[in-house]
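Supplementary Methods S3. Input chains for the assembly prediction are listed below.
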Amino acid sequence: MSETIKKFLYVNRKAPYGTIYAQESLEVVLIGAAFDQDVSLAFLDDGVFQLTKGQNTKEIGLKNFSATYRALGDYEVTKLYVEKESLEERGLTLDDLQNIEYEDEDDDYAEKPSIRLVTRAEMADVMADQDVVLSF
Amino acid sequence: MKFGIVVSEGPYQHQASDSAYNFVKAALAKGHEVSRVFFYHDGVNVGTRLSIPPQDDRQIQEQWTALGKEHDLDLVICIAAAQRRGLLDENEAKRQGKDADNIAEGFRISGLGQLIEMGIQADRTITFGD
Amino acid sequence: MGTLHTVNKSPFQNQTLLSCLAHVKDGDAVLMIEDGVYGATTGTAVSDALAKISADVSLYVLGPDLAARGIDAGRIAEAVNSVDYEGFVDLAATHDRVHNWL
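Predicted structure tokens for the full assembly:
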């Protein structure tokens, strides 16, 4: 759709459901995927709660959008950076997060993990390597 | 330089739309271009013409409409966020079978793609939110 | 020339300022706006963190937001420079990207 390819980083620092930010951030990511840009997602601070397993919103009446993260690979959104320190501070490990994979078309469609666990310092490097940083 | 601006909090509730307004005014005064202002989340509520703030307070929507007119700004309200929050233009009201619209002069409703396009085209994208 | 980070939350309300400071690179700038300006005063729980990082990062505060909150310029930490909206625009223009910590 556009000849310019920019590096877009969507920064997620808020937990889901309490406010709408996580859900409307995901809507931007899905629409943005059609623009063929170089897209990364960052999950840090309370943003890591967006990716946890076993979310069930039945009794609060809100839409459960957690499965959408697993569909991101179909939109060629395959770089989900999750900060290790943010997980640890919240008593979480990678095992508490959903298994999110994408099919690597350059590698015979092998299923590969989209979640990339990074340290705080590595997250800072990711942030410094972008053209556009959108925070939600 | 070309600036793209995101406003993602509602007027009066949060300072974000005021900060964005002051930033845009300063950028234009310095000879920069503001290619688009994109209203998202509760920020879409800036664009209703039906708000009636007290007379001794600033008129946020009217300020944006006036600044938009003066500088030919593209003030875009996200359609997905707007529909949730009851912000409609004439076409959308008709299409959805609603009996009224409420979008203010100088604003237009469009898709989220406009946000991405703004990010691609602008030299700097700045978000005012919570 | 690096990143301009903005922080609009009081550091006594949540961790946003500290999280921002933990992700800045040498040569970046941090601008405190809106309720973020409360982080710029001296003698607070975050003063040491700001003083420490000021060796590698430029620190700014938005003057109009200080004035609105009745914070006298004399109470601003030495390492923090006050700018107006035009200064904010200049900072955004002279850095490679803007990262708004919301």
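The longest strand of chain C covers residues 3-7. The two ends of chain C are 22 Å apart (CA to CA).
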